[in-house]
Amino acid sequence: MSRLDLFIDRMVSQRACLNHAAEMVAAQEGPVFELGLGNGRTYHHMREIMPERDIFVFERAVASHPDSTPPEDRVLLGDVFDTLPAALSRFGPTAVLIHADLGGHNAQKNDIFAREVSPLIEPLLAPGGLMVSSDRMYFDGLAEIALPPEAVPGRCFIYQR
After folding, report:
1. How many C-beta neighbours within 10 Å does residue 80 have?
2. What are the backbone dihedrals phi and psi of residue 138, each rounded to the nearest 5 degrees, phi first?
3. Which DSSP symbol is given to 76?
4. Which of 14, 82, 84, 94 would give a disulfide with 30, using CB separation of 3.0 to 4.6 Å?
5. Cβ contacts of residue 143 below 8 Å, gap of 6+?
6. Tens of pLDDT along 79-113?
7. How many CA atoms lie within 13 A of 154 on its CB side?
8. Burial (0-12, 13-18, 19+ Cβ within 10 Å), 2
9. 143 phi and psi angles, rounded to 5 deg
10. How far apart, in whole angstroms, are the C-alpha atoms of residue 41 and residue 144?
11. Is the pTM of this model over 0.85?
């Protein structure tokens, strides 16, 4: 499979999983967390499908498209190994949806990173909350749930508290 096909599968799956997750948590109250802003495409999509939600973005440095840049008071700048524990102190276990597309192009490095960051993400989720990730994660108290039909298996994962 070409790298282009892999990218398309990831994007189609990401959109399908985020749309599905937004519907699943629509009746719950709480913030949404976007781990990694990049150029802001995913953040922009989340604003479109969840306009009423407070969406907080975790990023080392903002470099997004101007149309996809969150307000300063919604950005938690720094390394996720620092900002996720700080977010737990600030928000507690209130996030209804957390999305992460933090991995690079090295599957082994992505897996190591997922193992390291999973314990910092899990405590942030509210009961019934969802974690959508482009990489397999490692949670003790979350269950992997079925993907929506439009998603490509292995290109996105959904976990629920």
Report:
1. 21
2. -130, 95
3. E
4. 94
5. 159, 160
6. 999 999 999 999 999 999 999 986 667 889 989 99
7. 3
8. exposed
9. -110, 140
10. 25
11. yes
- What is the CB-side half-sphere exposure of residue 25 using CA atoms within 13 A? 31
User: What confidence tens digit (pLDDT) does each residue in 68-81 have?
Assistant: 999 999 999 999 99
Token pair in block for residue 55: 């969406």
What does the pLDDT average to over 37-55? 95
- Cα Rg of the chain, angstroms: 15
Q: pLDDT category, 34, cuts 50, 70, 90? A: very high
**Two tokens at 150?**
């439009």
Strands 143-145, 157-160: pairing kind: antiparallel
DSSP character at residue 70:
P
DSSP annotation of 152: P
Both tokens of residue 10?
């990831």
Average pLDDT over residues 152-156: 94
